[in-house]
Amino acid sequence: MAEKINIADLPEFDITEHLDSDQAIAEYITVVLEEDDPALLAAALGDIARAKGMTDIARAAGMSRESLYKALRPNAQPRFDTIVKVCKALGIRLHAEPV
């Protein structure tokens, strides 16, 4: 019989620890975009911003840090212009392709 694992004893997973290269970030965003979920996209951009430094990304996007956190929280529905500003600040370009 396998030993039982107590979930509370497991380390907490933090995706930002794995977003340590442009390639990892691109792959993460690609997978998220395939889900067709705007709230998930906002949360993923928030993950990337946290990995790169929320203060620096907010400054580059021309937003306050608090506004950036609010716009990219899980289940947020940021405006498209906010997504564009954040993507530019993150050094991310979104691409379209035929399905």
TrEMBL record:
Pfam families: dnstrm_HI1420 (PF21716). GO terms for molecular function: DNA binding. InterPro entries: Cro/C1-type_HTH (IPR001387), HI1420 (IPR014057), Lambda_DNA-bd_dom_sf (IPR010982). PANTHER family: SSL7038 PROTEIN. NCBIfam families: dnstrm_HI1420 (TIGR02684). This is Putative addiction module antidote protein. It comes from Methylomicrobium album BG8.
